[in-house]
Specification:
single chain; 884 residues; alpha/beta; Acyl-CoA Binding Protein; D-amino Acid Aminotransferase, Chain A, domain 1; Glucose Oxidase, domain 1; eight-stranded mixed β-sheet; eight-stranded parallel beta barrel; 35 helices; 33 strands; 17% strand; binds phosphoenolpyruvate; binds magnesium ion
Length: 884
């Protein structure tokens, strides 16, 4: 055998072969290896899929032969023949990527049933109805999924037959009815496929495998991969498994279970089953499944076997498992196991409990937490004091609260949600085709389906609130209304979902800030023991600073002062200051602003006393402080036309002339950062004084104050920093001397221009610290204006994979990352102990944090609600670094 293989038999795989066999393939192989009952199978590797994609859809040489040989071996092991007239072998064909990925091809069941084998299936099972039921299901699944026949074609025929027979349920149809349905279905397939529908099971198997390959590239899978940062070139494996039947009568069943509650993490029975049903019935929500606890009465032996297997699987994988099972004539088979998707709350509880149970270490527990997912715990919940009555109730499928306008289809949700409008996606049930709408919706409400329905699973994975199976609601997609009793809610009206209770409210409810629970507290403390990066917050008012501190921030890494200039009560003085033509009038305007600035700083310093606070001096886009050019021109015109007050007209003209003089074509690259302070040194002078006075006032009042760090923004030249440092130092010295006090004050700069990074050694001469402003460093390093690009080509670039990630969300390691690394290295070459941090958006992004750890920054600074995420991410970064 050549060293490249495309097929592995069940007995040849194990859990370590996930990259080759996909999660499902490796999972079943591992179960079989440890003696858990699994139907026999073989797996087509991800390599086969990748090579097929690379060959433009052609199979690589030898693949078809290997599949045939794998099939032969499976036939020999089972003593059956695919589609045979005696002891026929039926198989399922399933996709199985390396990472669990909703959105790919639906499973094909019963492949191998045909005109030749159906009689043998009937004879063997002693159940003719069962055989014909399998056959009609197969034609439908194969036609829809592999050959692309529109689903309604078969569904309509089934509905019509039921109507003709006067029955409601599929199960009320007789063997004869189903036989007739098979003929109708075959005719439908022939009609849609121009008579080319193959009835040869081996050919069908090949086509099904190929359809799985193709589904890797389908749009819904692509959307999912993008949302979850799964590389596009991994490919999927294909699992071909002997069928076992949950629809063989009342001692057969099919179901799904979790070894713990995936919403809360509690160690309790969680799952659903359906007697006399086949796999997809449970997830598709066609019949309402029963809670697992009831299985104890109905199928006691299989139940005991299942409970024992659940325990065993959890101990083996040392993690919560999500399992699919089938019971055929009382005999349990596991079809799949994987680490269960869970909410952030459940992730923390499970990790914490597994440590207590001695199954994992604290470090492993930390590695299990997905920091970005914790975001959902940091989101608001419904204020319990609302006193409103829910209009409907469904299952609490994914916790959290969502308020938004009702929309009835995923495209509308994607369009409106993409524009940042809060929408709630309301569907009868969701399918993988809805994924792009779910991603941007605040929450999802379905009328149908259980705790393991598509909507529930996907929403939990994304940390979105979801209420599933709210059977009291009626959705009319055409009329675009949602009706509950006599209340009609039209598209665009606001509702509130409580994914933790299943309640639906017909109005917008107040939300309250999130609370951090015990498990969170426990794990984040472990994270703090491991991490090396400090975690600070970006905050520029008392409330945000207090919140940041509550969430564990070790200081403020960026206090922007622009907002303080923009407040309505200050803008007139700020404008006068900027438009002033003499030093005296500028100083006068600034003197008015100083006490207000001081007051702001006192608030922040009070909240952060005992910790360091980096205050960044004014970084203006100049135009934001000035009257708008067009509006000012119109005002002048209006005054001219209406013969208004001559003094007013003259003043307006004067302002217009100044606005024109200061107007900039590229404000982003204009008089920003320290450049305005270079023109008007009175500004940094005033700010430095306000900072020191505030720090001293807090010291006086509270008995302690903050570590003052004054930061000069957007420096490109070392001379700029030299000059600015001089101005600040002088003001600080004078203020301290006047107060007769001493305070340690450090002065540093932002590194947010490529030139600054490249000459960081020169700049470091004048800096006590560097804080990388990766927002501007990305804008100027990549040459992309964020505000313009995010609504335009940048989104397209990410969709087309010209860029893997939006570089404003996650740092562009190769380019901008290199600038950061150069900046750190050059800066430290001059000052060994130069403190370095980051305060761009990337400071709260787990992947970027991993990078910042690798280049040896001292701290990251992010928005207050991301502080806990950063604490976990920083710990994970250390653990991963140790692993490498
Ligand atoms: C930055 O550029 O990364 C930064 C933090 O500054 P701002 O976002 O205020 O420009
Ligand atoms: Mg900046």
């Amino acid at each position: 055998m050549s060293d490249k293989r495309y097929i592995y038999d069940l007995s040849e795989g194990d859990a370590t072969m996930r990259n080759l066999l996909g999660g499902k393939g490796a999972g079943v192989a591992e179960m079989s290896r440890i003696g858990v009952p699994v139907p026999d199978a073989f797996t087509v590797t991800t390599t086969a899929c990748v090579e097929t994609m690379n060959l433009g859809g052609q199979w690589p040489e030898g693949l078809a032969e290997e599949i045939n040989a794998g099939l032969k071996r499976l036939e020999e092991r089972t003593g059956r023949t695919l589609g045979g007239t005696e002891r026929p072998l039926l198989v399922s064909v399933r996709s199985g990527a390396v990472y669990s990925m909703p959105g790919m091809m639906d499973t094909i069941l019963n492949l191998g049933i045909s005109d030749e084998s159906v009689a043998a299936v009937a004879a063997e099972s002693g159940n003719e109805r069962f055989a014909w039921d399998c056959y009609r299901r197969f034609i439908q699944m194969y036609g829809e999924v592999v050959e692309g026949v529109p689903p309604h074609a078969y569904e309509d025929a089934l509905t019509e037959l039921k109507r003709n027979r006067g029955v409601e349920l599929d199960t009320d149809l007789s063997a004869e009815d189903l036989k007739e349905l098979v003929d109708t279905f075959k005719a439908i397939s022939n009609e849609h496929l121009g008579g080319e529908w193959t009835t040869d099971p081996v050919e069908q198997l090949h086509r099904a495998v190929n359809a799985v390959f193709k589904s890797w590239l389908n749009p819904r899978a692509e959307v999912y991969r993008r949302a979850n940062n799964i590389p596009a070139d991994l490919g999927t494996a294909v699992n071909i498994m002997q069928m076992v039947f949950g629809n063989r009568g009342d001692t057969s069943a099919t179901g799904v279970c979790f070894t713990r509650n995936p919403s809360t993490g509690d160690k309790e029975l969680y799952g659903e089953f359906l007697v006399n049903a086949q796999g997809e019935d449970v997830v598709a929500g066609i019949r309402t499944p029963r809670p697992l606890a009831e299985m104890r009465e109905v199928l006691p032996e299989a139940y005991d076997q299942l409970i024992a297997t659940m325990k065993r699987m959890e101990e083996h994988y040392r993690d919560m498992q999500d399992m699919e099972f089938t019971i055929e004539n009382g005999q349990l088979f596991l079809l799949q196991t994987r680490n269960g998707k869970r909410t952030a709350a459940a992730a923390l509880k499970v990790a914490s409990d597994l440590v207590d149970e001695g199954l994992i270490t604290k470090e492993e527990a930390l590695l299990r937490i997905e920091p970005a997912q914790l975001d959902q715990l940091l989101h608001p919940a419904i204020d319990p004091k609302h006193g409103r009555k829910p209009i409907a109730k469904g299952l609490p499928a994914s916790p959290g609260a969502a308020v938004g306008e009702v929309v009835f289809d995923a495209d509308t949700a994607a369009e409106r949600g993409g524009r940042g409008e809060p929408v709630v996606l309301v569907r009868y049930e969701t399918t993988p085709d809805d994924i792009h709408g779910v991603i941007v919706a605040q929450g999802v409400l379905t009328a149908h389906g259980g705790m393991t329905s598509h909507a529930a699973v996907v929403a939990r994975g994304m940390g979105k609130p979801c209420v599933a199976g709210a059977s009291g609601i009626h959705i009319d997609v055409k009329a675009r209304t949602l009706t509950v009793g006599d209340r009609v809610i039209a598209e665009g009206e606001v509702i509130t979902l409580d994914g933790s209770t299943g309640d639906v409210y017909g109005e917008a409810l107040e939300l309250i800030p999130p609370r951090i629970n015990e498990d969170f507290q426990r794990l984040v403390t472990w994270a703090d023991e491991v991490r090396q990066l400090g975690v600070r917050a970006n905050a520029d008012n008392f409330e945000d600073a207090s919140k940041a501190r509550e969430l564990g921030a070790q200081g403020i890494g960026l206090c922007r002062t622009e907002h303080m200039f923009m407040a309505q009560d200050r803008l007139p003085a700020v404008r006068r200051m900027i438009l002033a033509e003499t030093h005296a009038s500028r100083t006068e305007a600034l003197a008015e602003i100083l006490p207000m600035q001081q007051q702001d700083f006192e608030g922040i310093f009070t909240a952060m006393k005992g910790l360091p606070v980096t205050v960044r001096l004014l970084d203006p886009p100049l135009h934001e402080f000035l009257p708008n050019l067009v509006e000012q021109s119109l005002l002048v015109q209006k005054l001219e036309l209406t013969d208004g007050d001559p003094a007013e007209l003259e003043a307006a003209r004067g302002t217009l002339a100044q606005v024109k003089r200061l107007h900039e074509l590229n404000p982003m690259l204009g008089t920003r950062g320290c450049r305005l302070a270079m023109l008007y040194p009175e500004i940094p002078d005033m700010q430095a004084r306000a900072i020191i006075r505030a720090a001293l006032a807090v010291l006086e009042r509270e008995g302690e104050t903050v570590g003052v760090e004054i930061m000069i923004p957007l420096v490109a030249l070392s001379k700029e920093l030299e000059v600015q440092r001089g101005i600040v130092e002088r003001a600080v010295k004078e203020e301290l001397e006047a107060a007769g006090k001493d305070l340690p004050v450090t002065i540093g700069t932002m590194i947010e221009l490529p030139r600054a990074a490249l000459v960081a050694d020169q700049i470091a001469e004048y800096a006590d610290f560097f804080s990388f402003g990766t927002n501007d460093l990305t804008q100027t390093g990549v040459g992309i204006s964020r505000d313009d690009a995010e609504n335009g080509f940048l989104t397209q670039y990410v969709m087309d994979r010209v860029l893997e990630r939006n570089p404003f969300e996650s740092i562009d390691v190769d380019g901008v990352g290199q600038l950061v690394e150069i900046g750190v290295t050059k800066g430290r070459a001059v000052k060994q102990n130069l403190k370095t941090g980051v305060c761009g958006e990337h400071g709260g992004d787990p992947d970027s944090i991993e990078f910042f750890q690798s280049v040896g920054l001292d701290y990251v600074s992010c928005s207050p609600y991301r502080v806990p995420i950063a604490r976990f991410a920083a710990a994970k970064a250390v653990l991963k670094q140790r692993e490498d």
